[in-house]
Design brief:
about 0% strand, rod-shaped, about 130 residues, mainly alpha
């Protein structure tokens, strides 16, 4: 019986050593897994922070886009007003050009009239000179 018990003890001793080695292996793998888990948790945290920052930046970009849209609408309105003013200015300019042309025609007529009068005055002066000489 002693031999059987000794054999069982050796067998148990061997199994215990194997289990201790397996436990050490398991503990080292568990330690690696914990380290990897810590790295992954850190990455997840970084990604969550990046997501929050991205969402914040996204909402800021949306606000900026809305502001730009408002500015664009204001500028488009100003452009329309300026176009209308320009069209009104062109109409006014055309009126003034028409009036200037009329005045130019009147001036030419008056110049012709003035030239004709000068001729008449010269003729009258010449006639008067001739009459005074006789």
């Amino acid at each position: 019986e002693n031999d059987v018990v000794c054999g069982d003890n050796e067998k148990l001793s061997t199994e215990l050593i194997e289990w201790k080695e397996k436990a050490k292996d398991f503990e080292s793998r568990l330690k690696e897994a914990k380290e990897k888990c810590s790295v992954y948790e850190s990455k997840v945290k970084s990604l969550e922070e990046a997501k929050k920052l991205s969402e914040k930046n996204g909402s800021e970009i949306i606000r900026e886009n809305e502001s730009f849209r408002e500015q664009i609408l204001k500028l488009e309105k100003e452009v329309l007003v300026l176009k209308r003013e320009c069209e009104d200015g062109n109409v006014e300019r055309l009126k003034l050009v028409g009036e200037k042309e009329k005045l130019d025609e009147k001036m030419k007529g008056l110049e012709r009239e003035g030239f004709e009068r000068e001729k008449l005055v010269k003729n009258l002066e010449e006639n008067a000179n001739l009459l005074t000489e006789e």
